Amino acid sequence: MRYKQLTQEQRYQIGALLRTGMKKSEIAMCIEVHKSTVTREIARNGSGRWKYNAARAVRAARERQRYKRIHRIDVATWARVERLMVIEWTPEE
Predict the structure, then answer these.
(1) Mean pLDDT of the chain
(2) Rg (alpha carbons) of the chain, rounded to whole number
(3) CA 66: distance to chain centroid?
(4) Residue 72's CB: how many other CB atoms inside 10 A?
(5) Closest Cα to residue 13, out of 32, 48, 4?
(6) Cα gap 27→32, rounded to integer Å
(7) Is the pTM above the cut of 0.85?
């Protein structure tokens, strides 16, 4: 099975199916993802004093995705690397 991020609809389905008392493996079959995906989703967004809440899970996922886009290497450094590669420097040099 190839990895894909959960959609907003899938997160709402997880929440609804959990409230009905369905097992994680059954939920995974219903929304057609691996059972570990459902387990990780519930652990990430439903632990602590809060139960799983799909709206909160969607917001948290978007927030994590936003922070993921922060680049560790700035534009000036990349420009310098590209200039040096044009004159055939190796990364070690």
Answers:
(1) 85
(2) 20
(3) 10
(4) 5
(5) 32
(6) 8
(7) no
CA 17, CA 30: separation in Å to the nearest integer? Answer: 9
| Residue found under tokens 């439903």 | 46
57: amino acid identity, one letter: A
Place of tokens 């519930």: 42
pLDDT computed for residue 1 by the predictor: 53
What confidence tens digit (pLDDT) does each residue in 44-74 have? 888 666 688 889 999 988 888 877 766 778 8
**DSSP per-residue codes, 20-51:** TT--HHHHHHHHTS-HHHHHHHHHHHH-TTSP
Tokens of 23: 């097992």
